[in-house]
Design brief:
Number of strands: 9
Strand order of the largest sheet: 2-1-7-8-9-6-3
Helix content: under 10%
CATH topology: Pnp Oxidase, Chain A
Low-confidence stretches: none
Pfam family, one: Phage_T4_gp19
Mean pLDDT: 88
Structural class: mainly beta
Protein name: Phage tail protein
Radius of gyration: 20 Å
CATH architecture: Roll
Order of helices and strands: EEEEEEHEEE
Length: 144
């Protein structure tokens, strides 16, 4: 009887940029891509319209978490870009509570798009969170 895998119900997302750990995030949105299609109508053929794939677009990825000591790693990474923004390789690993890696995505040419730190106010006592948004130029093969 084949062993059935449990779905990742409760996960966190470990993020590494060029082998530097940025820590665990509890929310990851935007992992995906879209093939842009071009439509062409052929003269004399009214039965259908040609759907031609042209390019792949990758959405930005938004990572969110409560602030931790790992927040310093994010700001250190951002501060290192004062002289220019070098493109990096990133790895995002979805992990269960016990540390088992459920899935891993490797991204090429990663650059930060936006970082939003916590809003600290005694009038609204909420968990202080940070959000990091990154752009990339595609997924790497698993062997790279």
């Amino acid at each position: 009887m084949a062993q059935q895998q449990d779905p990742a119900v409760s996960v966190c997302f470990m993020v590494e940029i060029d082998n530097i750990s940025l820590g665990a995030f509890n929310s990851c949105e935007g992992l995906g891509c879209e093939v842009v299609m071009e439509q062409r109508e052929e003269g004399g053929n009214n039965g259908y319209v040609w759907q031609l794939p042209t390019r792949i677009k990758y959405s930005t990825i938004k990572l969110t978490r409560p602030i931790t000591r790992d927040t310093e790693q994010v700001t250190r990474w951002l501060a290192g870009m004062v002289g220019g923004i070098p493109r990096k390789t990133a790895h995002i690993s979805a992990m269960t509570v016990d540390g088992t890696v459920v899935a891993r995505w490797s991204l090429m040419d990663v650059v930060p798009v936006r970082w939003t730190g916590p809003s600290l106010s005694p009038e609204t006592p909420k968990v202080a969170t940070e959000t990091l948004e990154i752009a990339h130029h595609g997924f790497l093969n698993a062997g790279r």
